[in-house]
Amino acid sequence: MDKNFAARRRRDLIIAAVLAGLAALAPLFVKDVYVQNILILTLMYAALSQSWNILSGYCGQISLGHALYFGIGAYTTELLFTKFGVLPWFGMVGGGVIAALIAMGLGYPFFRLRGHYFVIATIVIAEIGLLLFQNWEWAGAAMGITIPIRGDSWLKFQFLRTKLPYFYFALALCCLAWFVTWWLEDSKWGFWWRAVKDNPEAAESLGVVVFNSKMGAAAVSAFLVAIGGAFYAQFLAYIDPESVMGFQFSLLMALPAVLGGIGTLWGPVLGAAILIPMTELTRSYIGGSGRGVDLIVYGALIVAISLALPRGLVSLFSRAKPKGATR
Amino acid sequence: MGLLYGLIAVGLALIFGLMDVTNFAHGEFLMIAMYLSFFLFAFFAIDPLLSAPLVAAALFIFGAVVYLLLVRFAMRAKANAGMVQIFTTFGLAIVMRGLAQYFFTPDYRSIPQSWLGGKTISIGGIFLPEPQLVGALVSIAAFAALYFFIHRTDFGRALEATREDPGAVALVGIDKNRVFAFGWGLGAALVGLAGAIMAVFFYIYPDVGASFALIAYVTVALGGFGSVFGAFAGGIIVGLVEAVTALVLPPSLKSVGIYAVYLLVVFIRPRGLFGSI
């Protein structure tokens, strides 16, 4: 088992490196801006879902309130940038740190809750955040913030003429989230999380500090999601509370991981790679009528996949991978 | 207003609270019920109050069918049962919203003239809008009926037993699917009733359910899963908190009070006020 595990981890790393390399070459062939846009969103959702998966998949604490951290990342970056002229790079890291601190602060009371009570608490806290931002005049209230154009530069992380830098950043973020997950999977934390997920009482009795491991997962997860939020804000150059903190977003973050395979290393990437292009294509090809056909198709697919493959799409590959892969 | 939340929540209390099945499409059930009573009014000029039993009956069938066609299979999932339920019902909700947009268009509709709409009644000098008052009375009746149903009839006992241990129930000859399909039907019928009454004084549009669904979840959880009385108490508390918050904070923040109270309650009592699961 140990040997298999090590071999599988090495293979995963190689596959990831090859995929990342191929992805990095993609812009050479894809010149169409619309397709580039889809690729960027796919990579971003893969990264977000991977981060969500750390807390909800590995550690088993289902959060449907991650939009809060996403929004905090976006708002920290943009408020610092527009009000104080702080470069987005600092805002990004600052937003991540604030999100992680909030996640830990919330963790104190939240992690006492179980099951539905926990899930509803996460939804509710994100909803409170949304309402507060909608009513916070200084932060633009419901109108949001339009990010001023200061010209193309990596320094200000703003590009008008080309989308490529965004693409590479999203790819890097996706790789980072994947690598962090990969690395944590084999660490003390990774084993603790899985133990906490399977049976918290038993884990506690074997000396796992359940509370601390939940806190760790929450902090890492929130930090990465907030960075994604900062990226999204720069990418769109416009944010408002509903579009970065809405409940819809929390679900969209969870969806790729759930469809791909919750609590697995490859699930979020696989889920995002299929789901996001599908969403965008249905939206632009059949959504134009404004009559909700895209919603019908999209919803039906979600129902179909969740019913047909409760373990997610990775279960299709499970023969190729030893069972440890899906744990 | 609180009792109205209670009325929406009572159906959810049955499905989500007593059967322990997540239903993220509850708000969409409400939406369908509101459209039904709108069309019954628009085409046949049946007042929503009269058509309410029809709507409830239609929703009963709809709920039972949803259970038999979808939820039954979602519950059978061996892995991640919770997530499968969440996303199956969430997918269903999206489909229902899409269908509503397709057939009914995203326009806002309302029932202009009805027996109750816009009228007020004075009780001891306090003016109350009639629709809300009827809603409150129906809500109390629905809760009382459900309470009686769960605690005093064989079906209620069968329902609770099925949640506790489906295997053992099968041994004594209870068909789990029949019990749960009936439970889903009943839950949907109750939300149908809520929809029929609310159609009188709320705008009807495809996304209307979403704004009420979260409050309904909070109401059920606040009262505690597995308790009918809890959901009733939850509804009253939510209504009161909302009214008080609206006095102190701007109206756009009125839900914040409800959410804060939920958090406060579960921090002190992690299983809600009267919860048993």
From TrEMBL, chain A:
The UniProt transmembrane annotation reads: 54-75, 87-111, 117-133, 166-184, 215-239, 251-276, 296-317
Does Transmembrane appear among the keywords? Answer: yes
The record describes its membrane topology as:
Multi-pass membrane protein
The organism's superkingdom is given as Bacteria
Give the subcellular location.
Cell membrane
* CDD domains found in the cross-reference section: TM_PBP1_LivM_like
- A Pfam family annotated for this UniProt entry: BPD_transp_2
Keyword Membrane in annotation: yes
Keyword terms, alphabetized: Cell membrane, Membrane, Transmembrane, Transmembrane helix
Q: Which InterPro entries match?
A: ABC_transp_permease, LivM-like
Question: Could you identify this protein by its name?
Answer: Branched-chain amino acid ABC transporter permease
Which organism is the protein's source? Bradyrhizobium agreste
- Name the lineage: Bacteria, Pseudomonadati, Pseudomonadota, Alphaproteobacteria, Hyphomicrobiales
